[in-house]
Write a structure and sequence with these properties.
Distance between the termini: 29 Å
Radius of gyration: 26 Å
Strand order of the largest sheet: 1-2-5-3-18-19
Helix content: 10-25%
Largest sheet: 6 strands, mixed
Number of strands: 25
């Protein structure tokens, strides 16, 4: 990023729910730890170049000990001879308020970052802030926004959400990856304008792609409903408008913001107990009978274990021409408060079956000891009770007041118990990259909030005086065209029932999925108006559960995002106690969306791309 082209602020997002657990365990071993040490190794290579080019660095790598990392950065700067000023943000650590917690951290906003940059910091280190705050905080500094600039802040938050997972916005983990060369995707950057709109792009010559599809996929990632709640602003995802701005350039505009809620999210991690696992390989014939034999033989050893889960993955093929493709995997995962009940004695008992069990017995790894696992939960705290503090470059602590808030919004009205389709049709979506929502008069992409304002905000005096070391090209941030109304459904005069064909949903729809504690979210989007009409009407909660049977019996919420031609599903509790408890084959639900795309449905032929197409 430092060598690829112009840049004003370089951000680094190092924290995830699992990361906080790992850093918490580090802190138990050494109170001086608790931050992402990899950041220091990377900084040693690039600090001089960043200083030379006038690039500020903002990172949440401080984790549980931002003051410690800030001190380490100063020591590193002195070692390499680079005269930089360092500030940090603290106050998020609420572990002392949560008895028995390994970590408990409030998600702070970007105002502390803004204050540090206003005080002249070259490097700003934070603890647990929202991922998007790493972008919205610098944007508020650059343009001198106030806490009441909700629309502008919301636009920057949306841009920050797109950037937070790096190359996921430039073709990484993308449903239609075969349409592009994504072997070495470049990192995304956002050219943010005074009105809060932004262009997502990447430096010239870097790999991957920035398209409406890649941006849509990331916008849907790990979100829950149209209101994207944050400590600085509530961003309305149902007002987002995407337009093509040239090769590898997608403009985000029209984002509306509301006052933030009066509370902050608090992520709490605890040591949940001990876990272990054994994977048996079942080859050839009678796979089900072999699996049943192993379960019966280990029944006594599992007596008294708090939680034992068996999963049979039928990876075997009939008449296979390699041994591996003739084999299935039987996975046993055990968890218990005591390491003794799920320790080496249990895994040894499994291996000791080797000479007296099913033919071809073997396992994928030798017996091992139990390992501790963590659990994640979230709660909330009044924002006024969190000591959000910016420690400025000269060491002065500056208390950041909580912004004016709004009372809790009335609950969204997601579909939670919608009926299945009336006819045997299925969801559809556009192949490859969604067409730019407002690319043609026939298919405008507008938010249900109605027309966006022309967005011709003047730049602040602070911005005019500062200038730019790179950033947005001339003309960025001009008035955006007004678009009104919700995208109309396409109607065909005299059209009767359409011909359908059995095909995977992924022939039409893209998807992106991920985890939020014990919940999973699956975002599904399509490319065209006709496909959106069908997706909206067809992919109900009931059909979603039918396509993904593992979600049956769980609460599934569905939200519509017409401006993105997307549906967002939240599956409550499918991940149990969160990623670190690891009882699922896919503990972070990263592939849940791809499973959905692989399910076959009766899809109208007129919506499908040609059979020989590659998803473009």
């Amino acid at each position: 990023m430092l060598t690829g082209g112009p840049l004003d602020v370089l951000t680094g997002d190092y924290l995830a729910e699992l990361t906080m657990l790992i850093l918490g365990r580090d802190r138990l071993k050494d109170p001086d730890l608790g931050y992402a040490r990899t950041f220091l190794r990377q900084l040693e290579e690039g600090l001089g170049l960043a200083h030379e080019r006038g690039v500020r660095i903002v990172t949440n790598a401080g984790g549980l000990h931002p003051a410690g990392l800030a001190a380490a950065v100063r020591a590193l700067a002195a070692k390499v001879g680079v005269p930089v000023t360092v500030a940090h943000v603290e106050g998020d650590d609420l572990t002392a308020r949560h008895e028995g917690a390994l970590t408990a951290n409030a998600y702070l906003g970007g105002a502390g970052i803004t204050a540090c940059l206003r005080a002249g910091a070259d490097v700003v280190v934070t603890g647990r802030v929202t991922d998007a705050a790493l972008v919205s905080g610098p944007a508020a500094w650059w343009f001198d926004w106030s806490a009441e600039d909700h629309d502008r802040l919301a636009g920057a938050v949306v841009a920050g959400h797109v950037l937070e997972c790096g190359t996921q916005a430039t073709g990484g983990n993308y449903s239609f990856f075969t349409a592009h060369d994504v072997r070495r995707p470049g990192f995304p950057l956002a050219e943010i304008s005074p009105d809060g709109s932004a262009v997502i792009t990447k430096h010239p010559g870097t790999g991957g792609v920035v398209s409406a599809g890649t941006v849509t996929a990331q916008l849907l990632y790990e979100t829950q409903g149209p209101r994207y709640l944050g400590p600085d602003v509530t961003a309305r995802l149902d007002t987002v408008r995407l337009t093509d701005d040239g090769p590898d350039r997608v403009r985000i505009s029209g984002v509306r913001g509301e006052a933030p809620p009066p509370t902050l999210k608090v992520g709490v991690t605890r040591i949940g107990g001990w876990r272990n696992e054994v994977v048996f390989v079942l080859t050839g014939l009678d796979v089900e009978a072999k699996a049943e034999l192993v379960r019966a033989q280990l029944a006594d050893a599992l007596e008294g274990v708090a939680d034992a889960r068996w999963t049979l993955a039928r990876t075997d093929h009939a008449d296979a021409d390699t041994e591996e493709t003739a084999s299935a995997l039987l996975r046993l995962v055990v968890r218990d408060p005591s390491p003794d009940r799920v320790g080496r004695a249990l895994t040894s008992a499994a291996v000791e079956l080797a000479l007296g069990s099913y033919p071809g017995f073997h396992v994928t790894a030798p017996p091992g000891p139990a390992q501790p696992y963590g659990v994640f939960a979230s709660t909330s705290v009044p924002a006024t009770q969190v000591p959000h503090t910016a420690v400025l470059p000269d060491g002065t602590p500056l208390q950041i007041p909580a912004p004016p808030t709004a009372p809790p919004a009335p609950p969204e009205e997601p579909d939670a118990l919608s009926a299945g389709p009336a006819e045997p049709t299925a969801p559809s979506a556009g192949p490859g990259d969604p067409a730019t929502p407002s690319a043609s008069p026939e298919e405008p992409a507008a938010s249900p909030a109605g027309p966006a304002e022309p967005a011709a905000f003047p730049a602040s005096p602070a911005f005019e005086a500062r200038g730019s070391g790179g950033g947005a090209p001339e003309g960025v941030g001009g008035a955006a065209p007004a678009v009104s109304g919700v995208e109309p459904r396409e109607t065909v005069s005299g059209a009767g029932p359409r011909e359908t064909v059995r095909a995977p949903l992924g022939r039409l729809a893209g998807a992106r999925s991920g985890d939020k504690g014990g919940d999973a979210n699956v975002g599904v989007w399509v490319a065209t108006g006709p496909a959106w009409d069908w997706l909206r009407d067809t992919l109900t909660v009931e059909l979603f559960r039918a396509l993904l049977p593992e979600t049956r019996g769980l609460t599934v919420l569905r939200h519509e995002l017409p401006g993105l031609r997307a549906l967002n599903f939240t599956v409550t509790g499918i991940l149990g106690d969160g990623v670190a408890s690891g009882h699922r084959f896919d503990p972070q639900a990263k592939a849940l969306g791809e499973w959905l795309r692989a399910r076959h449905l009766d899809i109208p032929v007129h919506l499908l791309p040609p059979p020989e197409g590659t998803g473009t």
